[in-house]
Amino acid sequence: MAEKTILITGANGQIGSVLAKRLAKIHGEDRIIKTDISQPEEEWGIFEFLNVIDTDSLVELIETYDIGEIYHLAAILSANGERNPRITWNVNLASYLNMLHIAVEHKIEKLFFPSTIAVFGPTTPRENTAQDVPLLPSTVYGMSKATGEMWNQYFYDQYGLDVRSIRYPGIIGYQSLPGGGTTDYAVEIFHAAIDHGVFDCYLNHDTRLPMIYMEDAINATIDIMQAPSEQVKLRYGYNISAVNFTPEEITAEIRRHYPGFKMNYTPDYREQIARSWPSSIDDSAAKNDWQWQPKYDLTQMVDDMFTNLTKSKSHV
Ligand code: AKB
Predict the structure, then answer these.
(1) pLDDT surpassing 70 at residue 56
(2) pLDDT tens for residues 222-245?
(3) Ligand 1 pocket residues where CB is under 6 Å
(4) In the chain, which segments carry CATH 3.90.25?
């Protein structure tokens, strides 16, 4: 039987643009259907326009391409979400509930849902945050993802839908830029160091957040999707952890490469969002169940970011 194809929503985004390439390497370019609401920057493989709210078009694509696996990455992130709560809810959650129903109806073999540390809130213990803790998210983005997690478990229990999910920390990569998140500073700071030698940070110097290098985030995604079903014991969303740092600590790392780098602090509303999230994460469930293991520590990540960013910027 021919291998089914894989559909990615939000394929132009920070994770999607990198994940699509990795999946194309594993399964072949012609098996990956990238979708998004705007034209991708790089032209390769198969791309289709898709607004995830438009369920008819989603069904059409699933039928046309004989889709067997979906990575549903389209979402509005924490900081942007606060500017338009209703649209955020519709894009992140209403569309997802449709997606879950469509996945059951069309016998989708596996569905990936990206969850986030934003599901946690001010009542969650901040240090070494465990897998099952009080969730009272402070953002609409967090609310939509926490609700999505509950639907994941429900669809697995009620319909046997093979849904898998990870709670991503802030993701740092040289390949793509994040947009509208609270953790975005940790990517922007690298570009600022190379381009301007100075960065104005919207968080306080000591606000510690969990982060992960893109390479590890993509490995985690592939690993959980390739794990035998019985190993994926939690269907709502696994904690994963790699590194954690404060703006002050990453500044010190950046100064190993750019000793004159200047950092200013002008905290805004994102500081409050960040303070409602964990500072570190306990990911023992993911480690035990599907042998999750990150490769990059802070120093390795910073070195690799500068190696690759300076290379790509010198080619522009
Ligand atoms: C955000 O900052 O909103 C995202 C996330 C942690 O999910 N990067």
Answers:
(1) yes
(2) 999 999 999 999 999 999 999 999
(3) 77-78, 116-118, 141, 168, 170, 178, 181-183
(4) 173-210+242-280+296-307
